[in-house]
Structure formats: structure tokens, C-alpha cells
Amino acid sequence: MSKNEQELSQLGSVFDTRAAYFVCNYFASHDNYLVDLDGNEYLDVYAQISSIALGYNHPELIKVAKSDEMAVALVNRPALGCFPSSDYRTILEEGILAAAPPSLDKVWTSLSGSDANETAFKAAFMYHALQKRGKGTPFTEEEMKSCMENLPPGCPDYVILSFEHGFHGRLFGSLSTTRSKAIHKLDIPAFQWPKTPFPRLKYPLEEFEKENSQEEERCLELFSSVIDQWKGRIVAFIVEPIQSEGGDNHASPYFFQRLREISLEKNVLMIVDEVQTGVASTGKFWAHEHWNLTTPPDFVTFSKKFQAAGFYFQNPEFVPNQPFRQFNTWCGDPSKAIIARTIFKQIQKDNLVSKIREVGDYLYEKLETVFKSTPVTNLRGKGRGTFIAWDFDSAQERNEFLLKMKQHGINIGGCGDSSVRLRTTLIFEKKHADILCDAILKVLNV
Ligand SMILES: O=C(O)CCC(=O)C(=O)O
Ligand SMILES: NCCCC(=O)O
């Protein structure tokens, strides 16, 4: 038995390891390479499900991890809502807020991607209720009583609209908006919230311009009509710039511009879930910057590669009218905000946004050649940094490919039914793209 197998079996007796790819030696892992317990080094193009920005054991992260500032943040973890730390404002201003999407100058920090989305939902619901009730109008006796029974009017029948194949997390509210795979949802009670189709584009895009634009128009019409059908109950919709877990499904900037226009016309708030797409990997710091919206989204949520989680917003009325409405013990975590600040500074210092755009273009072009005369279809993600994916005909073929890639020293992940997705770090270079392509050529026998 290898060390890996041994540890997996021992850990497996106290912790569910059935989803484990292998046991990692994070002490030995470095930059783009993840090392397992048997000492095998993998070029990692999955990066902890899209969550490692600067590679493993980046010296600047290690340095800040060893700082007094970090030690104090960790051992005296503040309940930020009640007892914010003296340095939280600067940590935010120099990091998370300095990285904010255009026009969104405020942030609420939370604990995970799911929590980021759910706190944005709550902000949207409370804002909507405030508009209906009228500012300054106190809660009624009936509202106060009925909410304790989980009933309206205190708990109104407002809903969040999401897209088929979208993934927004696994807590109750976020899972209700998640529509990628049944395995995520089975046996869990869910809100009866609406969904609407996300475009299924055909590739190569240049060959299917007409079909794809018809498909986007079809989805836009349904988006608009579902909002009408729900007669004012849809308070917000949530959308990923590229549906990731659900299969790396893309849509054009035009599609998102129209979503924004329709949502403004119909008074529905827009939540852009940048948990996976955010923090540079698509070649812009935030993927929705590719759309050139004239009115920014109402909320942009983040987590994963930023390590810290939360949502950005601009409208001061998204802060509830009373304290303790958007609240929990932690309200974020300064240690994670310090890490986010370090990540942001390093991205700026090393010019990683434009570097990942360049290496992404290089890799995409190479893959176009590599995949000629192979069963691979639907290569996608052109002009989106290293946020690249492709399809096999079946889940079985895809899974065999992933396994063989591992045998050739590449840690790589799937998504959707039969897709492979690249989720590289931001320090992925052309030399790594070459290694990746060589391994693909070997695995596909071309
Ligand atoms: O399955 C999960 O909860 C992780 C989801 C995710 O973000 C992904 O797989 O892209
Ligand atoms: N969303 C599931 C991610 C786990 C995996 O298959 O890598």
C-alpha cells in the first residue's frame, strides 16, 4: 500500500474521503506544483477547485502568515460586527476594497462563497421590503408575529431567480438557486424558487453565430417572461459570468448587457456570482468587466481565490435599516482579509492580470492545434485568460482522460456532464502551458 492509500484509509475512518483525489503534502507543494504523500509532483491546473491564486507556499503569503498582524488576527479572532479590529478598515481599503469592481465601493464580508451569495440575497430581500414598506415605516405587529411562525407578511414570499446549470453554493438558500447536478440537492428541502435557461452555445463560435444569437434571444425572452409571470415576487436574479461547476457555459457580453437592461426595466436586482470567475483568471480582475455594462451589477460576490468572502455593492440602502439584521458572530475574518490584501498586492506588483491574459491566449491557440483530429469538442474560453474548457462525448471518456492526465503528472478537474476545465493559478506560465499540452498529446495519443 502506498503512503497515500494508507493515509486515505486511516483518514477515511474519521472523515469522509470518498471525494479525495489524493492526500497532499502542502509542506512540499510549491508554485504550480501539488505534491502527494508519495512524493509525486503534479502540475496543478485545478488549484483546489479554482481557489489558489498565487500558487502553493508563495513567499509573500508565508511572510504575512508569520507576521504579528496575522498572529493577532488569528488568536483573537474578532466578532467583527460588535468588536471590529482597529486595523480592519485599512486591511479592507488596501486589499478587498482596492480590488473592488468599478463603481462598487462598499463590501460586506462573509465566510464562504455560499455565505457570500446568501448574505447578498438577504440584503436584496431587506432592501426590497424597505422600498415597499416605505423608508422610516416601522415593522407592524403582524410582521413581527408572523415572522416567528415563518409566515408572511413577516417572512414574505419573495424569491431569487437563477439559471439552469448554475452553481451558487450548498447552504439552503444558495442551494435553492443551484441547478447544476441532482447529487447536490437530493433530500434537502428547498425554496420553491424559479429558474430560467442559460444559453447553450455551439462551438466554434465563428461557425454558429446565427444559432447562438437565436439561442441567447430565446433565453432572454424566457428570462423576461418568467419575471413577469412571478408578478413582483422576483427580487433579484443571480448569475455566474461563466457557469463553472455546471459545465463552463459561456454567454456573450451582449447577453449579459441585455440581462442588466431587462432587470433594470423590471426592477429586479442583479447579483453577479464571481466566486469562481473573480480574481484575475479570466484576464480581467472581475469577469463581468468583459461585458462593459453601462449600469454596474447591484451585487458582486466573491470567495475562492480571494480566500476572504463577501459581496460588493454601491447602493448604501443595501445596508439594512437596523443593526443585527445582516449579522453573525464573525461577519468575515480579518486573517482572510489580510491574505486577500496580500494576494491583491502581488497581482498588482507582478502584473498578473495581463500575464494570465497572455498565457491564456497562448494556451488556447496551442489547444486548438492539439485537439485537431481528437474526439475533443467545444473548446471554449477564448480571450478569457486560462479559464478554458472542452468536452468529451461521455462522462466515462472525460473521467478516463482526467485519470490518465494524473498518471502523466497533471492534476486537472472536470465540470458539467462531460467537460474538462482548466483552473490554473495566476502564476501559470507559457512553460506550464507547454507541459500541459505535451501531456494532453500523450494521453490522447496524437
Ligand atoms: O461542489 C462544490 O461544492 C464545489 C463547487 C464548485 O465551486 C465547483 O466545483 O466549481
Ligand atoms: N463540484 C465538485 C467538484 C469536485 C470535483 O469533482 O473535483
TrEMBL record:
EC id: 2.6.1.19
Lyase keyword on record: no
GO terms, molecular function: 4-aminobutyrate:2-oxoglutarate transaminase activity; pyridoxal phosphate binding
Protein keywords: Aminotransferase, Pyridoxal phosphate, Transferase
Pfam family for this entry, one: Aminotran_3
Gene3D superfamilies documented for this protein: Aspartate Aminotransferase, domain 1 (3.90.1150.10), Type I PLP-dependent aspartate aminotransferase-like (Major domain) (3.40.640.10)
Cofactor(s) demanded: pyridoxal 5'-phosphate
A GO biological process held by the record: gamma-aminobutyric acid catabolic process
InterPro entries reported for this sequence: 4NH2But_aminotransferase_euk, Aminotrans_3, Aminotrans_3_PPA_site, PyrdxlP-dep_Trfase, PyrdxlP-dep_Trfase_major, PyrdxlP-dep_Trfase_small
Catalytic activity: 4-aminobutanoate + 2-oxoglutarate = succinate semialdehyde + L-glutamate
Gene Ontology annotations for the cellular component aspect, listed alphabetically: mitochondrion
Classification via CDD domains: OAT_like
Family from the record: Belongs to the class-III pyridoxal-phosphate-dependent aminotransferase family.
NCBIfam families assigned to the protein according to its UniProt record, in alphabetical order: GABAtrns_euk (TIGR00699)
Subunit comment: Homodimer and homotetramer.
The protein, known as: 4-aminobutyrate aminotransferase
